[in-house]
Structure formats: structure tokens, C-alpha cells
Amino acid sequence: MEFKKRVWAFFLLCAILFAVCAFTPYGSLNPLAAPAARPVLLPGGTPFGVKFFTRGVIVVGVTDIESYDGVASPAKDAGIRTGDVITAVNGMQVNTTEELAEAVNASKGADTVLTVLRGEEQFTVTVKPKRSVSDNLYRSGLWVRDSTAGIGTVTYVDPSSGRFGGLGHGICDPDTGNPLPMLKGVVCEVTVTGVIKGRRSEPGELTGKFSLKTLGALDKNTECGVFGVLDDTGAFAFSPMEICYSGEMKTGKAQILTTVEGVAPRLYEIRIVRIYENSGCTKNFLLEVTDKALLEKTGGIVQGMSGSPVIQNGRICGAVTHVMISDPARGYGIFIENMLDSQE
Predict the structure, then answer these.
(1) pLDDT tens, 175-231?
(2) What's the total number of domains in the chain?
(3) One domain for residues 213 and 68
(4) Which residue in 1, 3, 205, 289 is deepest, having the highest Cβ count within 10 Å?
(5) Cβ atoms 81, 142 nearer than 8 A
């Protein structure tokens, strides 16, 4: 009888172990299985200047032309809108305003096919340029630009590869809100020279002086930030930090690392007010500046601080992205995982 009990106990134990293994992820019962390494990054907080060149040229306006046939707007007649991106003329790629103007003038008034990017949609339109009375050149009635520049903040640098992420949001078209298609981008050293203090309904701004010194290059412009490679990571004085996953973030005390004068970042106290679940790519949490020195200097969050890393319990958990227009002391942040996922 005692032997039978032991046999039944053995089979019962085997059944329990089988059930546990069947419903447990592979490797979790292996005592030798190492947990996935938590990424370790250099926190940024350093301002950088961005010189951004688009793939194609951006339409910033559509206007009339005083032509020899009367007032006309070929671009408007073709349905081109502000915010569209012209990527080719008669199948030939254009990336500068000069290339577009030369291609349109070369048409001598013949039907000209423009390739247009509008959001995610690409299509073609046909325009018939008119000769302008003012300069005798054939024109389409388009006002365009091919580059932009501004100040942002580095969020993190991967010390092993030199790759970095910044801004926490893309460089976007002001009308559509879509990230601009990037041809190339250059990262320059910048010195913060002043602050326009933020007030209710009046967002503030960091002002700065661009240096001729190039720090690196951008290779991606996404909804979650800009990404690229820096030539030298030795300028980042803060020690490497592990990341904090979104599920580990807590409401309450935290810090931001940012630069509001000169080139050296420092830590300022903030409070995580709310964490949003299933909030998509950006605006994942609400933060409030509580540091008296920062409030006195900037009024809270100002343009140019986008990308400033948010640190909680010694770990990088995200970055500042937007200011609340109604209350400059408050703003939104992005989870660090979203930036890391977007850089790949």
C-alpha cells in the first residue's frame, strides 16, 4: 500500500510539472537563463542645432502670377496645396528650390508633370507654367523651401554605437503635422544665449547661437523624434544610466536634465502628474515643473527643451515633448521605449 501511494505521488508530481511547463514561457524555469539586459544610455540634456534638408521641396504657399496671358496660378489650378512636397518634375528628382525653378522654366510653358507627396499619399499633377511679366521666366505660382533649422535637446546617446535620439517628436510640417521627409540632416553645436519666458497662451522659447562645429548627422525623422550618429560622445558629462520601462514609472517626484543657459545641462525637479496607458507614440505622460529656479528662468517648459530627458529613481524614463499652452509649467512626455523603438 505504501509503495502504491509513492507511485501515485510520483505521477501526480509529474503531472503538475508538465502543466506548469506547458503554460510557462520557454526559459523562465531554466535557472541558467539570464534576464534580458536593460539598456544603458548616456543621458543628454545638451542643446543641439538642427539643419534639416528635405527630400523634395515643401510648398509654403500658392500664389498668382502676372503673366503675358493675364493673372494665373498654374499650381492652384492643378490642386497643389500648402504643405505638399514636390519630389520630381517630369520624372526627374528635385531637392532644392533652385532645381524646381530651373525645371519649371525649362518647360517653356509646355505641360509639366509634378510628383507630389501629401502625407502618405503620392500622386502626380500636370501644370502649364506661365511666363512672368516681371522677369520673363516661366513659373508655376509655387512658394517653396527646401530646408529648415532649429534648436532641440539631445535625449540620450548609446555609448557603444554613438547613436543618439533627440526632440521626442518629429520635425513636422506646420500645416499637416506630418514628419517632413528627410534628405539629410546636420547636427551642430549651439550655445543657449537667452530665454523668452513662457506665459499662459504664449509659449516661451530658447534662443541660441549656432556654431560652425558639426557634431554629427541625422538619418531618421520620425513621429517619436530625430535620430542619428554623433562624432564624439565624450562631451556628455553625466554617467550612463539604465532605462526605466513605462510599466515601472510612477506618479510623483522626478527630474529633467536640460540646458537653459550656456552649453552645460543641469537637473531640475518636476512631478509626474499622470501616466497614460495605450497613448500611442507621444504624449505618454503629463509632467509639471516644480523647480523654483527653472520656473523663474523659463516659466516652465519652452520651445527648445523638447528632448530633455526625464529621470526617475536614477533611470531614464522618457523625454519632454510638448508644453501645455494654457499652463507653461505643465507639458507632456514620451516613453523612452518609444524613442528606442523608432531609432531602429
Answers:
(1) 667 788 888 888 888 888 889 998 888 888 888 888 878 888 999 999 999 999 988
(2) 2
(3) no
(4) 289
(5) no
105/178 same-domain check: no
Sign of CA dihedral 303, 290, 242, 191: positive
Q: Which residues are catalytic?
A: 169, 291, 306
pTM, to two decimals: 0.76
Which string of DSSP letters, residue by residue, matches 284-322?
A: -EEEEE--HHHHHHHSS--BT-TTPEEEETTEEEEEEEE
- What is the distance between the alpha carbons of residues 194 and 208, in angstroms, rounded to a whole number? 7
The answer to whether residue 293 sits within a structural domain is yes
With cut-offs at 50, 70 and 90, classify the pLDDT of residue 36.
low
**278 and 218 within one domain:** yes
pLDDT class of 163 with cuts at 50, 70, 90: very high
* pLDDT tens, position by position, 15-28: 444 444 444 343 33
Domain of 81, CATH number, reads 2.30.42.10
Query: Minimal CA–CA distance to 95: which of 126, 117, 65, 73?
Result: 117
Specify whether 131 is located in the same domain as 153: no
Range of the domain at 134: 64-140
Q: How many CB atoms lie within 10 A of CB 260?
A: 20
Which of 232, 117, 233, 235 has its CA nearest to residue 178? 117
